[in-house]
Write the structure tokens for this entry.
Amino acid sequence: MAKVTFKIGGVHPDDAKLSRGCAIEVLPLPQTLYVSMAQHLGAPAVPCVAVGDKVKTGQVIAEPGGFISAFVHSPASGTVKSVGPRRDLAGNGVTHIEIAVEGDEWVEGVDLSEALVKEIPQDRTAMLDRIKVCGVVGLGGATFPTHVKLNPPPGSKAECLIINGAECEPYLTSDFRVMLERADEVVVGAAIMRRILGDCPCVIAIEENKPEAVKSVSGAVSALGYEGISVLTLKKKYPQGGEKQLIDAVMRRQVKSGALPISVGAVVQNVTTTLAVYEAVQKNRPLISNVLTVTGDCLPVESQRNFLFRIGMPLNYIAGYAGGVPGDAAKIVSGGPMMGKAVADMDAATVKGSSSILYLSESLTRRKPESACIRCGRCADACPMGLEPFLLNRLRKAGDLSGLEAGSVQDCIECGCCLYSCPANIPLLDHIRMAKGQVMGIIRERAAKARAAAEAVSPKEVTKENK
Amino acid sequence: MDKYLVSPNPHVHAAVSTRSLMRDVVIALLPALAVSVVFYGWKELLVIAVSVASCVCIEYAITRWLLGKPSTTGDLSAVVTGLLLAMNLPSTTPWWVVFIGALVSIGVAKMTFGGLGQNVFNPAITGRVFLLISFPTYMTHWEMPAGLFGADAVSGPTLLGRVNEQGAAAVEGLDCWQTLFVNVGGSAGEISALALLAGFVYLLCRRVVKPWIPLSIFATVALVAGIFHLADPAVYTGPVFNLVTGGLILGACFMATDYVTSPMSTAGGIVYGCGIGLIVTMIRYFGSYPEGVSFAILIMNMAVPLIDRAFHQKKYGRT
């Protein structure tokens, strides 16, 4: 089949998948785990254990704090030592549950065997509930609660389930290793989600720089023999793993500004999320672990690793286990080099969505001095949303908020392509992100005012709508 | 932890800078410069040297001493302007005329507007047009190349100059394709279309520029000249002649594609290119000057802000 990609913009950074040959290793448990209550998009979870409580591996220790929120489970067995604020990897204070690890004794009812469970249950609601109770969130970056995404609002119908195996961020190889080593489970997970979504077709989309993964997943698809699942090879281009870009590449449809993917019939789930769905539904195993890559341009290839980690493991524990932070590391990033977050504090604990510890050298990562815009248009060519970053930056300088809104600053996905490709090293994304925040605030305020005005005119109708 | 950098994404950058882009333009101009030095000899070399040195020094002086800012000459944009200005001048231009051209290019057209990225008009063309109007004797007197290896120098008008004076019949029977290789009599930028095109292909391969602006200029010139030539071949020169003569290739490939003074979007670039192509042919056919590429580019430079307002990138999910 011809390789596809998304139409607008994109860049081609060196993919630097240095750790692609490293099999996933299981990290031993540390003495203490720090489990964050804000591991997902939406409201933070609310702790339901108290200091001194004994907990088992997989036991619920925090409950959803709202509709868009998720359960959190204990990543090991032991004693709750404290519940309180602790710094996350961006340096913000977030409530964490500190667990003194005493062992790895699991709660009742979890299937810990390696046996593949191929039979797909019929009860859609029960499966969704299992995914919710097991705390599954999107592991591709956004950590959106998976059960919400798999339950489209009434009136919308899933026409295609896309399993995101693009892994377009340079350096990261965790998704690649999962597709290579756990292809069967990923394919069963895809079949489960397909069933939940009403048997829509499912496409497992993988970038061409991972031919081994394409082979392994294709093999699993044909061996397992589920209907409606196919594998699609994508051209290598960043940010192909972006939800909107992937939908464009696979379905040739574009999600309207402000709308959800389901509005064009698409549901996108990451491969590692798909594995978590398999474990939740078939094994009743909550999401307490994920795969993370220890990599970077200043880490020798023989020191690079792919680890299966438990959530709550501090970054410095993992770094220490892998041989310590390399001396010439100038920046440590959690996530990929294009969209990851710079780590402000190595004491911070891993979360469900952690995908890497990336060590970048000074020469690779230090920002170069900014010079004048030469109007080359590279930022606009690179923007996968078709925006004009040079123009947005000028409008921001002029303080023209309505111009920024007309220029669709609110559509920015913060992928970093503009700054990446700017020959004058203008911090376009830094500025655009701030302008986007301001414009989003105005849009929200306007929507709230409109709602209030509508309610004031006809309170009855609005109540009806809400029902 | 304070020894590690913390900044927002992205954490890596493409291996491209203003300096690397300008360096690629310099490399792309080298074949044509080499051919012109071979044919026009040391005089041409002197024009190039004076032009580049003046541009760089004037920019340095203005940024450092007049504005009190760090020098911007390291971005090599002044070198590009110097080279382009030299390629627009006859090899016989006295050094002080070249210097005045550089002064107008950098001092007036570029720095008064705020330096690189802010100028409305292409600096090299502004300098050239200033000289053309102020010193027409030096600017329209072309020397038939004696060259490094040649014997006597002969002077005479360019092909377009002959057409301007005597009509299309003056160049009847001329093998236009031969002028692709070496077009004797003209400025450095007019001597070899092939060398210029080779440089332009290099820029395309390095993805420094996109082909749409030059292609739309060539297409418009060919179309308009084709129509007029069909109507009256005795008065109007044909499309091939118009494409290969004069400064069209230099202008279309290296000056109309100047980032700063051309539209940002592809659609805008095509409109801009068509405008240039139309104005060039109109000046050549009906104007008092034999050649109109410089004027055409300057006129369309003025339209760029308007074009940029009218044409935008196609956005995702907003059609």
Remarks:
- The interface with chain A takes residues 1, 4-14, 16-18, 20-21, 72, 75, 77, 115-118, 259-260, 262, 264-265, 312-319 of chain B (CB under 8 Å).
- The two ends of chain B are 47 Å apart (CA to CA).
- The mean pLDDT of chain B is 86.
- Chain B has 14 helices and two strands.
